[in-house]
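pasting for the record
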Amino acid sequence: MLPFVLAVVGGTYFALRYEFILENYIFDINTSTLTIKKRGIWVNEVAEISIGEISKVELKTIPTENDNLYEVRLLMNEGDHLSLGKIANQKEQQKMADLICGYIEKRSH
């Protein structure tokens, strides 16, 4: 099975500039790893974790003043979590959470 990639674009506000960061999440069932790549003007990071460290995938609703944001979170075995971004489109976030759940479940077969 081929790995799949999720790309998340986020913005972080720093003083007088707005920096866009592209985040790629590569789930590779063959190596049982999740590779996280963050790229931006001042950011170039790569991290790798074992898919086995992920205990659960959840979709969290975050209320805001005008609307809700929806965050896909990977809950880790040690109790930490990894956010895969927050957007207002619940349907898209649910699709991403379901896709990750299905992909992670295949590692046990």
